[in-house]
Amino acid sequence: MQYVVCNGTCECRDFAKAEGGWCKHRAAAAIHKRALALAKAKLDTLNGSAAVPPGQPTPAQPQAAPADTSTPLPEAPASANCYVTLAGRKVQVTLRDSDEQRLLARLEALLQRFPAEAEPEGEQALPDGWCRKHSAQMKLNHGNDGSTWYSHKTADGWCKGR
Known about the structure:
The chain has 162 residues and is an alpha+beta fold. It has helices spanning 24-46, 100-113, and strands at residues 5-6, 9-10, 78-86, 89-97, 139-142, 148-154, 157-159. Among the domains are: 5-46, no CATH class; 78-113; 129-162, no CATH class.
């Protein structure tokens, strides 16, 4: 059986009883309309044209939809996490996919888009307990007040690695 959903109403007998008039037919039509607008906006973005038809929501301003948190989502068969610098901020990106090869291709494209930043000259990635100034291993010290710090002796005195 088919029902016509038009101007926020539906012909089905459940429409009058549904909370706020949201019968399953009207909800399905709304989901379809929103998904179509998002898919078109995504395609336009990928094709270099960001035009969104009048009256359609833009991807930057999504309409709020009630979230169903009662059922957990299944774990993706393939996933990868990495940190990238985006607009000067270090952010973690998680990629999930059902196919490992496709996931690796997406990860490679992401890493090409956001290449690793070179460390400033003279600074090295040293583990805790190593002086960045002298590249020397330091000793962990404990104070009577419960404080802890690393330091090492130099010809000029004690260095705390700063």
